[in-house]
Each structure stands twice: as C-alpha cells, then as structure tokens.
Design brief:
alpha/beta; about 1400 residues; 50 helices; 8-stranded parallel β-sheet; 33 strands
Length: about 1400
C-alpha cells in the first residue's frame, strides 16, 4: 500500500502499541476471532474512562483483560532430550524389580512378623501345608519361551511374551460355575460340603468357597481355560476372598485359606498343562476383587461424609488376601474390576507393603471398570484419571474389564492405550447381561467384537469377563493370533500427572492469564480466608464446598485444603472435608493439595483421596531420618509432594541457602527414597519484601534466581510458593499487592521456570494489566533496583488507600461502565436472574425492587411478571427451553417467598384499617395471584409428569396451582374446584380410558353449573378428540374447553382465558372446534367399513405348516425378574422420548438422540439436560434409590375355534385336555383399505388347535420414583422431581426392551442366534412383537385383568391396576409377546357396532360397559 488519508500527528508506529493493544488490533483487522469487535469495544470504553479520569484529576480505572495468549514455557537442557524406545514397562522402586531378580518361590522363608501372624490364624485344616513352589533350574531349557520358577525373571518373561504376541487371559469364573450348576447339582448342600455342613447361614452364591468344598469343580474350570481356551494366564477363584466380602457369609476367618486353596489349585493345573508343552508356560494371576464396599461413595443420602469402610480396613483385608495368594503359588497379582479407585489404591498399597516386607519381585496388573458409556468409574473418574491415580504402583499391565461388552469399550480402550506407559489389556463381557445373569454373545461374536482392539494395536493381553467361556477365549485367541501386540510408548521426559475425577498433566498447563503456571486455589485455607475459617469452625461444610466450586470456576487447577487451627480437630476436619469434597463433582474434578503443618493431618486426608493429590508439605527441619520416613510414605500412596526449603538449621532466606537445601533434599529423595523427580515441588520460600529492612530487600531476586538454579540442578522438579507472602507488608490494598504479584510471577515464570503457586486466581493480574507507574515501582521493588523502592511503593499505597476512602464516600476513580448484568436496574436484574435461573442475588434484588414499588404485590405484577413474560415469550418462540423454565421456577419461588411476609403484613394493616380483625381472615387467602388453576390426573390414571411440568410453568407465571394428584375421581375434582374457588380446571391423562373419564368430568361440570374453563392435556389426548368428544358436553363462550398441546402453550392459554381479550380468544376457538367436528363427521361419512364378517373373511393368514410356530419355551410358566439392576438396562435406553418429555426437539438433520446435541437451536440445552440426567442416573445407580422388578409368563396357546381370540393353557397336559386357563379377546381391523392388505387381529399370529404354539406376557416396573419425587417436592426442587420421573420412565422402557431380548434368547429361546446391538433393538429388527395392552394393536385395556390374573403381576411383582386399569407405579410397562416372525405391529383403528356387540358377547361383558372402554375407537356414537 502506498497512500492514505490520515491524521499524521496522531499516527503511531506499530512498536508504539502496548502488547495487549497490538493483539486486539490484529485480531480485529485480520478477523482472527469472533469476539474481536466485542473485545475492542470493551477497550474503547476503558480508554474513554481514562480520558474522563484525566479531565477530573482522578486515578484511571482498571484495564479490562483482553484476549489471552499462552506464553511459552521456559526450557531447560533436559527438556530437549528426545524420547527413546521403551524396552519394558516402568519398573517399581525395589531392587528386586529393577534388577529383574527371579522370585525364588520359597515362601516359607518369607517370615515377616505380620505375614507370620496371618498364617498363624489360618483356618487350613493341615497346618503343615506347602508354600514353596520353586523348580529345578534344569527342568526346562534356559531360553525363552521356556520358564522355570526360581531360575527366570517373570518380569522379563512377560515383557518378551507381551511384545511378541497378544497374550491370552482366561474368561469368567462365575459363568462357568453357573453353567456347571445347570448340568450338575450345585445347591446349598454342595456349597457347604461336609466341612461346613452345619454352617450358621446360607452360603450358596459364595463361589469362592467352592475352592475348599468342591475343588474338582474349580480345578476343572481352570483346566478348560488352559486346554480349550489356550490361556497363558488364569485368574484365581478369589474375587470375593477378602474378610470384608466374606463377612456376608460370616466366613471372614477363612479368607487366607480361600486364597491359598484357590491359588494352589490353579498352580497345580498350570504346572500340569505346562508340562505337556513347556514352550507355552502357564501362569497364575491372583485375582483381587473390589470388595462389596467403597471408600469414595457414601451409603447415606443424607450425609455425604459417611462411609462403610476406611482405607486402613481395606489395606488390612487386601494384605491378608495377598499373603494367601502368594503362599498358594500365584505368579502375578491382578487387582481387578475396580469401580472405585480408592479401593484400588488400598489394594496396591497392601501389595507394596507385602513386596517390601518380602523383598521379592512380583508383577502387578490392574484392571478398572467403567460403568457406562460416560467412560467413568462408578466413583466418577475418567479412564485417564484412573490410570494417573494408580501409576505410582508401576503396574506391568493396566486395562479394563467387566460392565460393558467389547463394542461399548472401544473409545475408552483407545484413550487408555494412548496414555498408559505399560502394557494394556482388556477382558470385556460377552455382550450385555440378561435377566437371568447370563450373557448372549457367541464365541464368534465376542471375537469379532474384540477385533477392533487388535487391528488398532491397542492391546498386549486379552481375555473375557462375565458370560465368557473357554470356547469364547479360544475364538478370541484365534482372532488375536492374526495381529501384532501393542508397542510400548517411547520413554520421554517425565511429567507430573495429577488427578481428581479428571486427569491433569501439570507440565502442559497454562492458566487463565496465559502463563505456563498451575493455579492452586488458596481460599479453602483457614489461614488464607476468614470466611472459610468461620465456616469450618461452624461445621458448615456445605457452604465451604461452594467456596471450593467458585475457585475452580475462577481458574484454580488444584484446590488447596488447609484446616490448621488450634481450636479445630485437624484430623477429623480434614477427613470430613475431603470425604464430602470427593462427592462433589464440580470440586473433585480437579486434584487436591492437602496442606497442613502436622503430617498426620495430611495423611488423614490422603487416605480418602481416590485421585493423585499434592501433599504440602515436608522438609528437612524434622531431620533426615523423619524426612525420609515421610517421603517414603507419600511415595507409597502415590502423592506428589511440596518440599519446603527448611533444614535442621532453619528457613532458607538467601539464594545460596535455597539452592543448597533444595539440592540436598532432591538428592535424598531421588537416591534414598527413589521418589519420582517429576512429583517433587520445591517451595524455596517466598518471603516478604518492602518491609523497610535492608536484609529483606533482595528476597524477591533471591527467589527468582534460586528458582532457575534449582531447576537446572534438580531435573524435572517444580517450583512453587505462597505468593501472598511476598506483599504481606501491603495487606489491605489489593491493587498494590496484585500488581507486585503480577510483576514477580511474570519474571519468575517466564525467565526462571516457576511452575506452581498458591494464589487467588480471581484477583490475579497479567503484567499487561498493571498500570505503568505501578509496574515500574513493582519492578524496582521486586528486583531491588533502587534504594527508595519501598518508599515509592508506600507512597503509591498511600494514594490508593486515599482513593479507596474517596470511593467509599462516593468519589474517587472513574469506573469503566461494565456490561455486567449486576449493574442493571433491579427489574432488569430480576429479568436476567429469571431467564438464567440464577437465585444467588434474588433476595437483595427483590428488596431493591420492593423499595421502588408502592407495595409488595407490585413487585410480582411488575418486575417479576415482566421477567416471567420474557421467559414465556422466549419459551413460546423456542429460544428458551423447558429445563431452563423449570430452573426459572426456583428463582420465582424464592422471590415470591421473600415477598410473602411483606404482603401478609400489608394485608393485615389494610384489614385493621377497615376495622376487620386479621385473625378472622383465612390463612389460605390467595388474592395476590394472577389466577388459580386446579390440576388433576383423572380417575384410574397414575401418570403425572406432563401435569407436573405444566404446573411448574404456570407457577412461574404467578398462577396459583392446586395440584390434587393422580387417580382423582370426578367427585373430588368438582369438590376441590369449589373449595379452592379456582378460575380454571385442568385435566390430564395418558391412557385411553382417561379420554372417556374426561368426557364424564365435562358432563358432570355442566350438570353442576360450573363456569370455569376446562383444559385438556396428556399424551393420549388430542385437539380432535377434545373438539369432537369433550367440548360438546361443556363448551360455552363463558367456559370453553381447550386442548393444550404442551407446557409451552399453557401460560398463553390461561392468560388468554383470564385476560381482557377472552371473548375473542374463545370465539376463535369455538369456530376452529366447530370446523374440526364438521371435518370429522364428514370423514366418517366418506369412510367405509367392512362388516365384521367381511373383515374375518379377509383376515391375515399364516401357513403354519410352511412357517411353523416357535419352539416351546426354555422356561415355561411364570418367572419373577428381580435380579436386574438399573445399571444393567442403561445401554437399552432410548433417549428420544426423554427429550420429548422436556419438549426439546431438534430439526432436520439433527432430529433424535444424539444428533439433537448438534442442533443450533436446542443442542446446547439438550446437552446440559442430558448431563444433568447422567448425574442423577449415576446417583440413582449408586444409592439404589430406584429398583426394577417384573414378571414373565410363557404358556401354551392356540387360536380359538372362531379365530378371533386366543386360548391360553397352563400346561401341555391342559392343552391336550382342552382346559383353557384364560381367553384373550382380540379386535380386528374393519376400516376399508384401498389395497388388498388383510384385516388384521393379533389372534391371527397364533396357530389354531393342532399346533403347539405359545404366547408370552410380561409386566415390569421401576420402583422408588415416588419416594424421590416426595423428597424433591419437600425441597421445592421441581426440576429434579420431573427429572426423576423422566428417568424412571426411561428405565422401565429400557427394562422392557432388555427383558424382551432375554425372552427371545433365553427364557423362550426362539431366537438364540440373534445378534443385534441396542440400536437395532430400538429399530425393532428382531423376530416377533410385544404389543402393549391399551395401545393400537391391543386397544382394550380390560384385557389387562386377564393378563394380571394369569401372571400374578400384583402378587409377584407388586404392580397394581387402578380402576381405569392404569398400571401402578406409573413407570410400568406390560406387553403380550408373539414369537412368530410374520407377526407385526398394526393399528386396529375404528371398529363397527357389529364387532363390538360380538366382542362384548365373547367377553361376557355388558354392551354399554364394553362401549365405554372402547369409546375412543368406535366408528359410531354410543347411546
């Protein structure tokens, strides 16, 4: 460019621009980011405010923070060392492991007193049992792949095996025991055996004890996995062989023996099979399960700090198990099925103690369990966080097992494979569990499912978990043989890797200012926060958690927890805080820094951390011996550590002292403790400057210089400091202090490599944000540049204090006009709070609005209703969504609750002024509301989720809602409407009989002379039914009948009915409904129906000779289903109806789950809602607050003689004798079709007499929702109440899908070869159908009575029927099961009177009663 028209005087060179201004300009000119204009407008407002301040002689305002750019991390020589190929997994710290010393397997020489004590109380009958398993050195050739115990290093052998091919683990022990019990007697008697014949409690199900009472069974299973499956390693039958788990059977005293015998049996079989082919040695993995208790999850809903086990108890139990396994001859220790990492940490701690006591090397494998598709453990950790939490134990192999099939594990295995430094394994389930505890994937299915792991090179070992058998392992082995094993990742620079619920690599972190720096939040520190101290002294842990959450929101990467106070029990306080904090996802997603002056306090907290925390701190001031003791203990627990620059002589103050003490500490930690250098954080003591004392003036320089030298001399360590100490002399003046900190940190981080600091992230300044005058003064002070640096800073401090005082008095610096919503007027703040669901400031804002308004009611009718009108408009226009509206309800309720006392007082004074005694006026006066609405679910119907949503939405808009519940009789509805003197009545229903009940209510309202408008809503209702069937019985211009499609319409409708324009609204509605009625009746005239006899002649015909009925059920009769957990059915959930419940609908191409998350309009809210659902679902699974139960009936059946019904027989003998137990009456299509398609009835799908056909029934329910709903109602938490109901519906529908699959594959077994994933199931790609009574294929609800009597649904499953035959609990599903592949879903549609008369006769039911039940599908008007 050559020429421009400019103001030359004002032109700047690019070098004249401040750094942050240059970034803003480049972003704007080159359109680098979408916020460039907004950021420049903020800066413009600031610059104008600066000009204004100069004019007024005031201090300039604080500069706004512009876009952040990450600054580079300072590099040291060791940072440039290139990665090198790994030759083996990371080694444990012991000499035996590091030197690959072979395990002698002479366990009798392992005589540590703790081990000896366990053996001394062992229950083994033979006290002289063998513990030694060493082999002669020349037993097999001294070359790989041969292996001889005592001669060869197992660590070396596994490394060669896992790098040469994919090794094979075994499959499920429990499945094999179940399979054995199907072929052989294995009942309580066999479990007890002779030895436990008189045991005091039932022991069937204690599979581990079979190693003692039925050793041939267990050894046979081991042998099958080795010989048929070809396993290289087999796991012992010890999943529950801890004292903790065995307490369920009162067999704690037998823990050692259970482990010993299980390992011994495995050892014998492995040696036997190895002897047949020494080129393929077989190994015993001692299986260590998770126990049936969890250290991280509270069993109490009320108290999150409660636990049913502690770390030390877990360690003791695991230690005893390890002694038994090793004495029994195991080669490897396998900590498996870990759903709570704290339990795993206890297990590896116990193993570490055992190996230290014995001096032997024994490989450790660890296997985690991710419980669902969120990819997290039950205790909430991601796979990466799980690994970061246990990697200190240096396992040889880490992987995943259980909970999911291979297909579901793929993304999580990929992520784990990318991050772990050791070998990786998987042993998945054989698909998803079924109701009988079995699994359905065939060997070929399972091999194919695992193929993706092999193709991508993610695994070194593979096996099977639940449902897998030796043939499964064989098939997987044959598939794995075609692929290479995973390559160990290259060994690069070690990095500090912390974890909470999520992992955090400290060396890769940048903070919110763009600095390569770890922000440790200081506000949960009694010494750093007066508010936190008060809360802790008061025992208010819940509010203390809010402080922690806010720190994370403000930019803290780690939360510092310090409860040091002389008046507080530090150990108890630390334990309670940590136990509660780890149950708060928004807090525990980040790692913790456990901070205390007493080592026992940090240890108390450490034992409750499932993640990898930092411990602050240890030092040499306690002497080298205790320093080593503390550091060793922390290394065993896997914690990173802050090491203070103290020694026996005191605190390091000068640069030389800091370097000397830190280097000495480093050498001790690395050489004597073998502490990982990357887990060391030195704190060389940030000391106070600006005190006026000459000896303090160089403290800042000394720290910065020492930081660089320490990092040069101590590779991979971090440097930290308590930054607030630096400016302690200027306390009370935040601007001065943060300016000093900004200068100090910028130079310490970018020029010397400081990594970590305990800070108040919210108050931190970037160096570019420090005013030039202050920046210069701070640099002089920090770097001790001038003798007068302290005086200069004191002078600036004095000016700032004066400015603070001026501001207090209304003067002072000009402020930049912020765009924060908190600066808006009260009405606008309330509007913002309502739209965004923010209740934090409501009381104060409402009070301000009350002061402005003439009376409290004006606040509701003015600012609050204005805000809710905006909410309503946004909701109605699709710019705001139902979950947000529900949250707005919380804000509205809180606002109204604040105003109520003022309104009551005002009403009281008005009454007194009128000479009326306030005591004589009813407490239920509700005149302040915009209107009163009665809501009810009609008689016989228990469904209320939609009604609840409408109630909340109306309540948000200042309507008083009287929700009188479900199954409400007509009489009660009318009675309560009179009692409450309501303005509008709303009826809700889901099942088709409710439609007729609504007609009844409308007729009775008319008879009784009611004048209130009638609202109709619910899933089964429609505008057409309302117009044709209900409105004619009640509709007038005064009291219309209106169908309300969904919650978003309810406010508009009710407001219109009670507003000034009611007559116009009703006239339009009346005209619309009249047109609909005309169209409906015209359509009836146009539509033709076959006679019933004609329809029967053209029925659907199946050639049962060519396509015979399904085989007889595997398990005929009744089966109660009560072993299915909520977690089992989660993979079967269809989430689409969930979003429909909340009225969130994506648009093409983003319709349906999960595409809805991509929708530009509703995607963000849908994702938030889904995440909320996942959180509640995990809590429900963890606390068992919802349970599933059902019943299945499978019976012989034939079509009746007339071909219209189905006769059901209890047994084949009854069928032969013609003794039908029940008759199911079916309805047939009659509406004329334009094609030659048949006229269908469900009876057509059952074969006639002479064939052995069957029919199935099931009824399932989700229990516990009502109790949760009551709890949330008591807490005024409408959002959670509706969420619980929505989830209960999803659980039971998923349960039905799950159970239908189980019927097809197992209970009936007519589709054993079926191989469909969950998506295919939801698309109904299976054979057969499961129509529900009351739905289009089976529209008559009264058949449920026959159904219920036949399968005893009430007696066996607790599922009841209301008067209108609605199922109770509301979250229930029932269905008939037809197996024939030609059976299909269809809609009966409308039927004629000739069929109804015939149908009533077949059912022995009065015609009028029958017509009432079938009213929605009649093609004629009944009398």
């Amino acid at each position: 460019m050559d020429v421009g028209i400019v103001n030359a005087k004002e032109m700047l060179a690019i070098g004249d621009l401040e750094d942050d201004m240059r970034i803003l300009c480049e972003d704007l000119v080159f359109n680098k980011n979408e916020d460039a204009t907004e950021e420049m407008l903020k800066r413009t407002a600031y610059e104008r405010a600066v000009i204004d301040a100069r004019k007024k002689g005031l201090a300039p305002p604080r500069k706004p923070r512009g876009p952040v750019r990450n600054l580079p991390r300072m590099q040291f020589e060791y940072d440039s060392i290139p990665p090198k190929p790994a030759v083996e997994p990371p080694l444990p710290v012991s000499d035996a492991a590091r030197n690959h010393v072979p395990n002698p397997y002479i366990n009798s020489k392992l005589v540590h007193e703790k081990i000896a004590e366990i053996r001394s109380r062992a229950s083994n009958p033979d006290k002289g049992f063998n513990m030694d398993y060493g082999q002669k050195a020349d037993l097999y050739p001294a070359s790989y792949p041969h292996f001889v115990r005592g001669r060869d290093s197992l660590r070396e052998h596994i490394t060669k095996l896992f790098t040469s091919r994919i090794a094979m683990y075994d499959g499920a022990m429990g499945t094999m025991i179940q399979n054995y019990s199907k072929r052989n007697k294995l009942e309580e008697e066999e479990y007890r055996g002779d030895r436990f014949k008189e045991w005091s409690c039932n022991v069937k199900g204690n599979n581990d004890m079979l190693s003692i009472t039925q050793p041939h069974v267990i050894q046979g299973i081991y042998r099958e996995y080795l010989e048929i499956g070809g396993s290289d390693l087999i796991g012992t039958n010890t999943f529950s062989s801890t004292t903790i788990a065995q307490a369920d059977y009162e067999m704690e005293a037998y823990a050692y023996e259970l482990n010993y015998e299980s390992a011994r049996l495995a050892r014998e079989v492995c040696d036997e099979v190895t002897a047949k082919d020494p080129t393929k040695p077989r190994f015993v993995a001692g299986a260590i399960g998770p126990t049936n208790r969890t250290g991280s999850i509270s069993p109490s809903v009320e108290d999150p700090s409660v636990r049913n086990v502690d770390f030390d108890e877990l360690v003791e139990a695991y230690f005893e198990q390890v002694v038994g396994l090793v004495d029994g001859g195991c080669d490897i220790l396998m900590v498996e099925t870990i759903f709570d990492t704290l339990n795993a940490k206890a297990a590896v701690y116990a193993i570490g103690e055992f190996l230290e006591m014995t001096g032997i090397d024994m490989p450790l494998f660890i296997s985690g369990t991710l419980v669902d598709q969120s990819g997290r453990t039950l205790s909430g950790q991601t796979g990466e966080a799980f690994y970061a939490s246990i990697r200190h134990s240096k396992p040889m192999c880490v992987g995943l097992n259980c909970a999911l099939g291979a297909n579901h594990m793929v993304p999580f295995v990929e992520r784990l494979s990318k991050c772990v430094e050791c070998f990786v394994h998987v042993y998945s389930n054989a698909g998803l569990p079924n109701a009988m505890g079995g699994y359905d994937e065939t060997p070929d299915d399972m091999a194919e499912g695992n193929k993706v792991f092999f193709e991508n090179g993610w695994l070194n070992m593979v096996g099977g978990c639940c449902g897998s058998t030796p043939p499964h392992i064989k098939a997987i082995r044959e598939m794995a043989e075609k692929f290479e094993p995973r390559k160990l990742p290259d060994v690069g620079r070690p990095k500090m890797w912390l974890s909470g619920l999520e992992d955090l690599v400290v060396d890769d972190v940048h903070n919110h200012l763009g600095l390569p720096f770890l922000n440790v939040g200081e506000r949960c520190n009694i010494a750093g926060s007066i508010r936190f101290k008060k809360l802790m002294m008061a025992g208010d842990y819940a509010t203390a958690m809010d402080i922690a959450k806010h720190q994370v929101e403000d930019g803290a990467h780690v939360i510092d927890i310090n409860v040091d106070d002389g008046m507080l029990d530090g150990v108890a306080a630390m334990q309670k805080f940590v136990k509660i904090a780890i149950t708060e996802p928004e807090v525990s997603k980040v790692p913790f820094m456990l901070d205390a002056s007493k080592f026992e306090i940090v240890m108390a907290g450490l034992k409750w951390c499932q993640g990898k925390p930092i411990v602050n701190s240890i030092s040499l001031k306690v002497g080298e011996e205790q320093f080593i003791e503390h550091a060793t203990l922390l290394r065993k627990h896997g914690a990173a550590v802050v090491v203070m620059a103290f020694d026996e002589e005191g605190q390091a103050a000068t640069e030389d002292e800091k370097v000397r003490i830190c280097k000495r500490s480093y050498d001790i930690l690395i050489n004597k403790v073998r502490f990982p250098p990357e887990d060391i954080i030195f704190d060389p003591n940030v000391l106070t400057i600006g005190t006026g004392m000459e000896e303090h003036a160089n403290y800042g320089v000394d720290f910065i210089n020492a930081t660089k030298t320490i990092k040069e001399q101590c590779p991979y360590v971090k440097i930290s400091g308590g930054i607030s100490n630096l400016s302690f002399g200027f306390r009370g003046v935040t601007k001065i202090r943060e300016s000093i900190h900004a200068v100090f940190l910028h130079h310490a981080i970018t020029e010397s490599g400081m990594d970590v600091g305990i800070v108040n992230a919210k108050e931190m300044l970037a160096i570019s944000e420090v005013e030039p005058e202050l920046k210069a003064a701070a640099e002089n002070l920090v770097f001790n540049k001038t003798e007068g640096a302290t005086e200069d800073m004191l002078e600036l401090t004095k000016k700032e204090k004066e400015a603070i005082e001026l501001r207090k008095k209304g003067g002072g610096a000009v402020k930049v006009k912020e765009t924060s919503w908190r600066d808006l007027e009260p009405s606008k703040r309330l509007e913002h709070a309502l739209i965004n669901g923010i209740s934090q400031y409501v009381d104060g804002d409402v009070e301000e609005a009350r002061q402005i308004c003439s009376k409290p009611l004006d606040v509701i009718e003015g600012p609050l209703m204005d805000g809710m009108n905006v909410v309503g408009d946004l909701f109605g226009s699709g710019k705001m969504f139902l979950p947000q509206v529900i949250k707005s309800a919380r804000v509205m309720k809180k606002a109204v609750a604040y105003l109520l006392p003022f309104m009551e007082e005002e009403k009281k004074q008005n009454l007194i002024a009128q000479g009326i005694d306030p005591a004589s006026v009813s407490d239920n006066d509700d005149s302040q509301y915009a209107g009163k609405v009665l809501m009810a679910t009609v008689k016989g119907d228990v469904h209320d989720i939609g009604k609840n949503i409408v109630s909340v939405v109306l309540g948000c808009n200042n309507f008083k809602v009287y929700d009188i519940g479900v199954m409400v009789s007509c009489e009660t509805i009318l009675e309560k409407a009179k009692e409450y003197n309501v303005d509008v009545i709303g009826l809700s229903g889901l099942i088709t009989p409710s439609l007729d009940e609504m007609v009844v209510v409308a007729k009775e309202m008319s008879k009784a002379g009611f004048k209130q408008p009638l609202l109709i809503g619910g899933a089964t209702t429609s505008k057409m039914h309302t117009a044709v069937k209900i409105a004619p019985n009640y509709f007038t211009s005064e009291h219309p009948v209106i169908h309300v499609l969904d919650a978003s319409r309810s406010v508009t409708v009710v407001s219109s009915l009670l507003g000034e324009n009611k007559s116009d609204f009703v006239d339009d509605l009346d005209e619309e409904y009249e047109e609909m009625r005309e169209d409906y009746y015209a359509g009836l005239e146009d539509r033709h129906f076959l006679t019933f006899e004609q329809a029967k002649e053209r029925k659907f015909k199946i050639d049962f000779d060519d396509a015979p009925p399904a085989p007889a059920p595997t398990k005929p009769g009744i089966t109660v289903i009560d072993a299915v957990k909520v977690a089992d059915v989660v993979p079967y959930i269809d989430w689409n109806p969930f979003f429909q419940t909340w009225e969130l609908r994506g648009r093409y191409p983003n319709r349906g789950y999960p595409k809805i998350f991509n929708d530009a309009t509703v995607g963000g809210e849908a994702k938030k809602l889904f995440d909320d659902a996942q959180t509640m679902m995990k809590n429900i699974i963890a606390d068992g607050s919802m349970t599933l139960k059902g019943v299945v009936g499978l019976y012989p059946a034939n079509r009746s003689e007339d071909g219209e019904d189905v006769d059901v027989f209890l047994t084949e003998e009854d069928r032969e004798q013609g003794k039908a137990a029940s008759k199911f009456c079916m309805l047939r299509q009659q509406a004329e079709k334009e094609s030659d398609d048949p006229y269908m009835s469900q009876a057509d799908f059952i074969a006639p007499k002479g064939y052995k056909d069957h029919i199935g029934f099931f009824a399932v329910s989700c229990f516990g929702c009502d109790a949760l709903v009551k709890r949330y109602e008591a807490e005024n938490d409408d959002f959670s109440k509706i969420m619980a109901q929505a989830l209960a519906d999803r659980f039971v529908e998923a349960f039905a899908e799950y159970l239908h699959r189980e019927i097809r594959l197992e209970l009936w077994g007519y589709a054993k070869g079926e191989s469909l994933d969950e998506a295919d199931l939801l698309k109904i790609k299976y054979d057969g159908i499961r129509p529900a009574p009351g739905y289009p294929s089976q529209p008559d609800h009264t058949e449920k009575r026959t159904f219920w009597d036949l399968v005893k649904a009430k007696e066996l499953a607790g599922i009841e029927l209301s008067d209108s035959l609605s199922m109770m609990p509301a979250s229930s599903v029932s269905a008939l099961v037809f197996a024939h592949p030609q059976s299909e879903y269809f809609a009966v549609g409308q039927v004629g009177k000739d069929q109804v008369q015939n149908y009533a006769q077949r059912k022995s039911m009065e015609l009028s009663v029958c017509e009432r039940w079938l009213s929605p599908i009649l093609n004629y008007e009944r009398d």
